[in-house]
């Protein structure tokens, strides 16, 4: 990698680091002065050529030695962008910034305006009217076109970073066409997050506080268009509203993948939302190699997901038939909002599992196997069903079984035990308990603990016409 990992070029070989004629550095403004940054320029020098040559050699090496195809995708660079300023202040960068904005960028924004990410259209709300008059937007500098501000700087950097990464990615794809992606250090607070959200893992919410020019939501479309050799752009998520980030990076229907996130239980629970609700290819904890299996919060989650992976893959062929979710540690009932999901005539309400003591955290997937029949995966939640028919007067559990995996590869399950009576609250709901449910002060063991964390249930409804006097 010659471009900045996490905003800096710390992985370059010594001969690159010392040769500033071939590999010039970026400059940033600090306290009114320009200072040299440990980041190679993406607008001048031979960095892109050298990086592309090295990446091509790497991909060729993989092609030759990885006969078992262990490597299934490759990340190109790491969290690219400039830290400490909103754009490169070198003479080469200033020259390009003061020239007219490239016509291919203006033409792209003009033709694709309606499909651009909402964040971009909010930031550059006044741009649309300008773009409608090509003569008014041509031969104007970046500042004249987009404003003399950090967001214009970020757009400038994104345009050039995308071109740089495209040159590298295209070179690798020439010899070995594995899926390729680039990851993003996302702003924090993220869109819609509270201002008080922790920024330890992000730096802040302004370009330069996070790497300016990286594939963040406001410039995703620029990256999509000018780095077409990448299959998708991936967010690293350490804080903020997990679901909101997933939604932002599902833009234009691109594949969703989380290459970095926290490695604790808090993060592992969120994986189920990514897999079930957003169809993510995967969610990966950063630093997992420095934990033993017994220490890793992800171990049980990955084991469970692996055991039902065929079932999940089949369900995702019908995206409306699968849903993923989580609940964090319980704070107060006022903070808990039920999750409501519609499936073919049934409204499912998902809340924390029934307990006598303190409710616990939860995670899970709901898979509709056929109308009124569902597979429930996970722990810590309960599901109640209600018919959407205006004439229905009752809905309950008709049949429920705990399942265990017989053949994970084929997706075959068998019944471990029938659930009834206390286990379904006499047919009122499906209770996917935690491993150690809290009994509080109640001495009667009517709560069955999670074992396989897989259950199947069929619901039924009665119509008013079936119940005289109703």
Automatic annotation (TrEMBL):
InterPro entries to which the protein is assigned, alphabetical: DUF5597, GH
Gene3D superfamilies, per database record: Glycosidases (3.20.20.80), putative beta-Galactosidase from caulobacter crescentus (2.60.220.20)
Pfam families: DUF5597
Domain (DUF5597): residue spans on this chain: 298-430
Protein's UniProt name: DUF5597 domain-containing protein
């Amino acid at each position: 990698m010659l471009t900045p990992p996490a905003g800096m070029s710390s992985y370059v070989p010594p001969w690159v680091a010392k040769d500033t004629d071939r590999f010039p550095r970026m400059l940033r403004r600090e306290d009114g002065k320009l200072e040299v940054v440990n980041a190679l320029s993406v607008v001048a020098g031979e960095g892109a050529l050298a990086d592309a040559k090295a990446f091509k050699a790497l991909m060729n090496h993989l092609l030759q030695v990885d006969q078992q195809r262990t490597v299934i995708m490759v990340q190109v660079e790491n969290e690219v962008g400039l830290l400490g300023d909103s754009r490169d202040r070198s003479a080469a960068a200033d020259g390009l910034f003061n020239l007219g904005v490239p016509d291919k960028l203006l033409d792209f924004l003009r033709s694709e305006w309606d499909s651009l990410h909402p964040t971009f259209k909010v930031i550059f709300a006044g741009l649309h009217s300008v773009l409608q008059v090509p003569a008014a937007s041509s031969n104007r500098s970046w500042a004249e076109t987009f404003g003399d501000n950090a967001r214009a700087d970020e757009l400038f950097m994104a345009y050039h970073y995308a071109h740089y990464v495209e040159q590298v990615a295209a070179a690798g794809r020439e010899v070995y066409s594995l899926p390729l992606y680039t990851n993003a250090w996302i702003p924090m607070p993220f869109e819609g997050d509270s201002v008080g959200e922790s920024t330890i893992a992000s730096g802040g919410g302004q370009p330069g506080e996070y790497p300016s020019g990286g594939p963040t939501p406001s410039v995703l479309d620029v990256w999509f268009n000018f780095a077409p050799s990448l299959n998708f752009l991936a967010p690293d998520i350490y804080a903020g509203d997990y679901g909101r980030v997933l939604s932002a990076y599902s833009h234009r229907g691109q594949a969703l993948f989380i290459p970095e996130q926290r490695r604790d239980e808090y993060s592992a629970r969120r994986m189920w939302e990514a897999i079930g609700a957003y169809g993510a290819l995967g969610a990966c904890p950063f630093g997992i190699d420095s934990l033993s299996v017994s220490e890793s919060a992800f171990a049980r989650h990955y084991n469970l997901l692996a055991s039902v992976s065929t079932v999940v893959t089949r369900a995702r062929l019908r995206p409306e038939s699968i849903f993923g979710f989580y609940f964090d540690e319980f704070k107060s009932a006022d903070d808990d909002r039920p999750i409501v999901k519609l499936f073919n005539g049934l409204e499912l309400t998902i809340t924390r599992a029934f307990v006598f003591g303190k409710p616990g955290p939860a995670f899970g997937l709901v898979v509709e196997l056929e109308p009124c029949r569902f597979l429930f995966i996970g722990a810590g939640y309960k599901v109640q069903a209600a018919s959407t028919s205006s004439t229905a007067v009752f809905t309950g559990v008709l049949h429920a079984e705990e399942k265990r995996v017989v053949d994970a590869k084929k997706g075959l399950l068998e019944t471990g035990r029938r659930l009834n009576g206390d286990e379904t609250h006499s047919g009122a709901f499906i209770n996917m308990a935690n491993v150690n449910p809290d009994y509080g002060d109640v001495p009667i063991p009517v709560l069955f603990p999670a074992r396989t964390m897989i259950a199947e249930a069929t619901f039924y409804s009665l119509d008013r016409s079936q119940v005289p006097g109703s």
